[in-house]
Amino acid sequence: MTKAAATPLALSRCEACHTRFLPSDSPCPKCGSTRVHPYPVPDHGRAIAATELSAPAPGWAAPHRLVLAEVADGVRVLAVVDGALPSPGDPLRIALDGATYRARPAAASPRERGEGESPKARRAGPPFEPPR
User: Fold this and answer.
1) How far apart are CA 19 and CA 13, in angstroms?
2) Which residues is 12 bridged to in the sheet?
3) What SS3 state is found at 111?
4) Helices of type H across 1-132
5) CATH code assigned at 83
6) Are residues 45 and 74 in the same domain?
7) What does the alpha-carbon distance between residue 44 and residue 89 come to, in Å, rounded to a whole number?
8) How far is C-alpha 78 from the chain's CA centre?
9) Who is most buried in 32, 35, 55, 101, counting CB within 10 A?
């Protein structure tokens, strides 16, 4: 994925029923309203499932990696993976490259890696003990 070719990630929101979905020229997939407007969202998401095709369709290089990722507002995107095949839960960066969504691994935040917490905060049990 090249930075020059990538388009910022956006979703569409239906003003009639408030459904959020991937942008298209079609009306709302839930209620059929044409009062649909795009809005920008952050380019990060999480892998839900991924697969690698050793014999992809003509025009695609092997191995061809695909990921189902969840982005903002619970919307799911099927994207081509640039890099290693992600595992469920892995953080990703998602971008629109022409007509193809592309995903690449993203570094987890320190909190997601478990860094920055005190040893007491990581122990099993309730987050605090009530006074006696």
Assistant:
1) 6
2) 21, 38
3) helix
4) 110-113, 119-122
5) 2.40.50.840
6) yes
7) 12
8) 9
9) 101
Name the residue type at position 14: C
How many other β-carbons are positioned within 10 Å of the β-carbon of residue 56? 15
Is 58 contained in some domain? yes
Contact assessment for residue 87 and residue 50, using Cβ atoms and an 8 Å cutoff: yes
Amino acid occupying residue 35: R
Sequence-ordered list of residues with C-beta below 8 angstroms from that of 75, at least 6 positions apart, any chain = 11, 20, 21, 22
Question: Residue 55: pLDDT above 60?
Answer: yes
Rounded Cα–Cα distance for residues 56 and 108 (Å) = 30
Give the range of the structural domain holding residue 15, as residue numbers without chain letter.
9-40
Residue 74 lies in a domain: yes
Tell me: the pLDDT tens digits for 81-129?
Answer: 999 999 999 999 999 999 899 999 997 655 555 555 444 444 444 444 5
Distance (Å, rounded) from C-alpha 15 to C-alpha 21? 12
Q: Alpha-carbon distance 70 to 54, whole Å?
A: 24
